[in-house]
């Protein structure tokens, strides 16, 4: 891509001209984006697009992408996530990933590390196909899993697997700010070879005396701790954990184990978490009745009690989705009529013409969805 083209389309004067009513009228019905993306794929009047500038496979089942976003990117706070969209076999697919870089990264680029789900679609595709020059679409940063201002004097990070990404962003951001408080970072992985940011963690440990790194391996004995999270691990990592603000991200067994201890000790208010695994479903599927109708597809099926997203996919439909756990809003569609129930907390919604998240709501009786 020509640097001159990038400069032209990203300048303030160029953006004012290209978004003017005259240009919009002249490029109807396709719009100015359709024409300029042929010479600059990053150009868009509204979409945040990003070009992959570097691809690193830190472990056998992960891929780290460095992205250069266009002028529509407004930045992020450490700990937040973005929705990444790629086109696979002609269909745009969207998933949620947390930047792992400092929010103060000087070149303005974004680092996303994707842990491969063997049963997934997007992560295996990225592992196999991502290369410099690939252009993707990203959303504005979302989420409240962020450090407060002013920062706590003592911080405990606990992560497992790919849950390391938002924690790495927080850790890098704090070190870039020359944070002078106490940081303890307890990370769980199967073995040393499964730690995605092994080299980066070692570098931080050597450079910053106020950062304590504790590695726990569940399938190896050469870490600082061995086995799964427990009270003994917590005390070994930080004996004064009750005085710290704790930030947790990882698979559900780890998160449940940490929450159980913090709840039992009255420390739930000191625990902040980000969840990337499917939460526990609290609503039964045994009492399913009625029909689920997808009005735009002219399709009606017998309700089986699963989520609307699961039933739509089983019926051969391909609605867009991102997280599948109710965090993002990619799968939101309008409910024309009927009652739906949130499978996580049991809340019922009988209002017509209401937007619902397909991934965490199930039909209760006859329901019509605009899909």
From TrEMBL:
Residues 45-148 form the FAD-binding FR-type domain. Signal peptide: none annotated. The keyword Phosphoprotein does not apply. Keywords: 2Fe-2S, FAD, Flavoprotein, Iron, Iron-sulfur, Metal-binding, Oxidoreductase. It holds the Pfam family FAD_binding_6. InterPro entries: 2Fe-2S_ferredoxin-like_sf, 2Fe-2S_ferredoxin-type, Beta-grasp_dom_sf, Cbr1-like_FAD-bd_dom, FAD-bd_FR_type, Flavoprot_Pyr_Nucl_cyt_Rdtase, FNR_nucleotide-bd, MRET. One of its GO terms (molecular function) is oxidoreductase activity. Its cofactor is FAD. This is Ferredoxin reductase. It comes from Mycobacteroides chelonae (Mycobacterium chelonae).
């Amino acid at each position: 891509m020509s640097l001159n083209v990038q400069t032209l389309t990203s300048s303030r004067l160029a953006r004012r001209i290209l978004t003017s009513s005259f240009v919009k009228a002249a490029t109807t019905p396709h719009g100015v984006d359709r024409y300029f993306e042929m010479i600059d794929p990053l150009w868009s009047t509204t979409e945040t697009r990003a070009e992959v500038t570097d691809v690193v496979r830190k472990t056998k089942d992960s891929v780290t992408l460095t992205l250069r976003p266009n002028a529509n990117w407004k930045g992020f706070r450490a700990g937040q996530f973005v929705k990444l969209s790629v086109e696979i076999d002609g269909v745009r697919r969207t998933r949620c990933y947390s930047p792992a870089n400092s929010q103060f990264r000087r070149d303005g680029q974004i680092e996303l590390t994707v842990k491969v789900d063997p049963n997934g679609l997007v992560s295996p595709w990225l592992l196999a196909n991502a290369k410099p020059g690939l252009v993707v679409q990203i959303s504005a940063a979302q989420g409240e899993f962020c450090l407060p201002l002013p920062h706590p004097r003592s911080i405990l990070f606990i992560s497992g697997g790919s849950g390391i990404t938002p924690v790495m962003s927080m850790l890098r951001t704090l070190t870039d700010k020359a944070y002078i408080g106490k940081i303890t970072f307890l990370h769980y992985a199967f073995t040393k070879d499964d730690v995605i940011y092994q080299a980066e963690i070692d570098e931080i440990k050597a450079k910053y005396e106020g950062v304590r790194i504790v590695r726990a391996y569940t399938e190896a004995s050469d870490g600082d701790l061995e086995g799964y999270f427990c009270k003994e691990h917590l005390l070994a990592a930080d004996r004064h954990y009750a005085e710290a603000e704790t930030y947790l991200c990882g698979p559900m067994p780890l998160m449940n184990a940490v929450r159980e201890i913090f709840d039992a000790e009255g420390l739930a208010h000191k625990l902040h978490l980000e969840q990337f695994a499917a939460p526990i479903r609290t609503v039964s599927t045994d009492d399913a009745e009625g029909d689920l109708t997808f009005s735009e597809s002219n399709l009606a099926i017998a309700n089986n009690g699963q989520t609307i997203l699961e039933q739509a996919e089983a019926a051969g439909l391909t609605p867009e989705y991102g997280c599948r756990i109710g965090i993002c809003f990619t799968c939101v569609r309008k409910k024309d009529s009927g009652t739906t129930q949130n499978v996580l907390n049991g809340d019922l919604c009988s209002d017509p013409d209401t937007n619902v998240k397909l991934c965490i709501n199930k039909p209760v009786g006859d329901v019509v969805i605009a899909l």
